[in-house]
């Protein structure tokens, strides 16, 4: 396995395409390794830092994981067919399943943080939380609230401390 560092913004188009089509893997580790699928979020730039912004509902198992660890990885299949794993990880909870075992996903140590990446994916971002913000219902457009919110997200701004392709 060869790791090639890439600029954080080199694959913006691919990240956005994967987010809005099938979703991408958000991995956390605090006592237990877990991954979930996100379809909302993206890469941006705040405070002179590249940021991966992710939204996690408080009801999700991943929420407590990020709250405790303060970090996460994002793994994106570029050409790999991981549709079955994405479907499973997007509909099952880490409270009830070992998603890595169920989907034959391989945790590989990250370069700069404790949370591993997913070995079956090509593109990876390692992130340390530098800011978080709970949604405030009163600040949300009523139409969006009605359509999308049985419970609210916390937005995590993860400084991208490493971005690379696994070849």
Automatic annotation (TrEMBL):
Family annotation (Pfam families): Flavin_Reduct
Gene3D superfamilies found in the cross-reference section: Electron Transport, Fmn-binding Protein, Chain A
Domain (Flavin reductase like): residue spans on this chain: 27-165
GO MF annotation terms: FMN binding; oxidoreductase activity, acting on the CH-NH group of donors, NAD or NADP as acceptor
Record key words, sorted: Membrane, Transmembrane, Transmembrane helix
Transmembrane regions: 37-56
PANTHER family, per database record: FLAVOREDOXIN-RELATED-RELATED, HYPOTHETICAL CYTOSOLIC PROTEIN
Official protein name in the record: Flavin reductase domain protein FMN-binding protein
